[in-house]
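Quick sanity check, Protein argonaute-2-like:
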Amino acid sequence: MKSVDHHQTGKMSNLIVKSNYFRLTFLPNIIIYKYSVRISPNIDDENDVRNIMKRFIKQNSSVLFECYYENGFIYSRSLIIINRIRNNIVNLRKGFRNERFTINLKYNGQFNSLAEAGIDLQKLFRFFVEKQKKLINNGTFALNEYPFPKDGISVIVGFRFLIIPIPDPLILISRQVIFYDGKIQIFEYKSISDEADKTFGDELNCGPKKEFEFFRKCRAEIENCIESFGIKIHSELFETNGTLLFHPEIIPDSPDKPFFSKPSNTINFAILCFHPFDSDKMEKFEESFVKKTKKFGMNFEKCFETQFVDIRNDSEIATVFQNLKIRDIHFVFIGLSACSSSDYVFEKIKSNATSDHGLVTQIFIIEKLDWNIEMPEFYSSLAIKSCLKLGGQPNIIDPTYWNAFPFKPESTMVVGTSCYQFKLDNIRKNLFSHSIVASMDTEFCQNISIERVSIKQNDKQLFEEIFESLLKEYHKEHGKYPKNIIIFHGKRRIHDDQYTDLKTTAKSIDERIKVTSFSIDKSSPIRFIKNDDEKVPIGTCVDLKFQQSNGSTKEFAICSEIGNEAVRYKTTKFTVINDDSRMSETQIKHLCYAMCHIYFDNFCINDVPFSLELAQQFAKKAAKKCIGRNDINRIDSIDEIIENFSRKVRIHGYLEVPVDDE
């Protein structure tokens, strides 16, 4: 993410961008021979069928050279002399059994194009690329591998591809960087060498030039795999038009004046560490934090030296915070170890400090001080969080900005929805924490979040119940329901109901409510660069109609940057689901972009709208809380999880306050 340049506002400008899409072309007058396949005995499992056919083609490679199998047919560029197939028996081991299958082919005809033959291009490409490239279980083809034997892992740099089946087909090539243990991609590991971590970071955070060099190399590698079927991939990157969106006006208008309001009194604070620490590093941490808060116009004063607190039971935790309350200290930094930050001890400490004694707290991880204390943005983030927790208000979008839109902030609710999958080691079923976050104020900064757990992914009924509860909360505060609701859904990973259409729930409460909703893919593989191979400016928006056959769906991508040095960049894809307000395309794009400017972690532009980011954070937090509780005291049943792990909190920045249900 990159800090907002408030002087870039003004008229939109257009630019030509290059992408990681490439055009496909097909040689004319090719002949495709098609043969139906009969396997005896019959087998229903598609994976087994594919494995059988791969072995059949391989063991008869002299006759079936460059053949392709798909959905019960073998396709070939040359005529197959069936009676020359000498080995039509395939052995397949299933468990402890070794089964034999007989394969017979029957000529089905010849065709003059891949489309006429009924070939699925995505499956064709995958079939031939898989013959030459190592396929990782997550669908990534390995191109470069960096082994680290002592860690028992490798860093894999690979690619994925997607065929866009339009009249003039395109291929989208994406870059993937993963840890690999020799069998599967790994996401969590107990320890890893600095060398492996650095290699992963360097590859993950490569700039646009290196990434597009990679795309070009992958294009050549893929073309080499599939050219026998008369397919060529253009060497030139696909070009299209982009628009540079302008930033909304922010109040205050400078990163050095980051608060709309802040506490004016002196804040007495203390630091308690529930894990041993380095005194010199802690002293530098304290001084840097106080200095940063003074720059932001706040006065923090430490009351006593940082203490190490060695606790052995719950009653000792309560005593510690009771003593702080007596000494008139209301803000406490709590230093925890990385191990305890996600377990039940963390929850007990937080509960005693906030719920039982009314103290405002900020957690930090002691082990991370080694590298955090040298990062200026670390202290900016802490100062921001602290201000919010003490009742401050972050910078806001100038209310007059919304005059250009067909809704009024005072009668609009902005919503984010998210679903997060997790597991408990003693319960076999997948669990899903659901979160919906909804704004309650005119600046869209103060929100209420409701989190609940289900055994269903994207549980339609649960989402509707949560959304209805939030509408009632809005009515409780304003005496009326919102006239407009803007909903940002995270991208779903299932093929049926991709998201719950909350418009139906809103209309059932008040049919006059207008709903505008989006599906958002924050991990979109789409990338853009300028014609001179430099990165596009932050806020570059590209219409994605070029990848649709009829252009009926409104889709666009907005470019952002990641990290303080903004080396790595990314693209977020927005798809319009509903638009009762009938906004223009320009209004829709600027609405989404403006919502990415609302404060979340630092004074930077987020890659997704604030409400969606919060929903994703709270869905993950609910899962971690459930896992931490289960590690300390085993949860006996799914019913107990569903009943006990639900929450309704008011969110103001990082401050969470339980909401009374009465």
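Posting the structure with no commentary besides this: The first helix runs from residue 46 to 59.
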